[in-house]
What does this fold into?
Amino acid sequence: MALKIPVQLYDQLRQHGEATYPHECCGVLVGEFDESGGKTVKAAAACGNTRTDSLANRYHISPSELVRIQRDALLAGHDIVGFYHSHPDHPARWSETDLAEAHWTGCSYVITSVEKGRAVLTNSFLLLDQEEAKHFVDELLEFIQ
It folds into this structure.
């Protein structure tokens, strides 16, 4: 399975990580699920990180902002297909906190490593919940125009 994302939106979420450095950025990926379980991103909604502590290694999206994004997506005939955030001066791999706070099974979680203010590497992970144990698996990022 793959997360298909337009190059322009991929660049946008990486730039968001650079703009919020040394704090984590966060946002929502809106698009479509296909029959094979893949996803295509149609829009990326940058969100404010509402954490009041640990901004360098934690993020939180306001529930009201998430509800608004979901409502707007549904009105446009789309779904929330994933989330993104940055890891300032840390690898583009999920952390135990990322897993503990991930709840949207079947969605992609995209993480960009931002080192010294520059986006370096971006990876995607699919959240699965099998046999009552949620976990991430590596997911291919496929770039489209």
Remarks:
- Helices lie at 7-20, 63-75, 96-101.
- The CA atoms of residues 81 and 107 lie 5 Å apart.
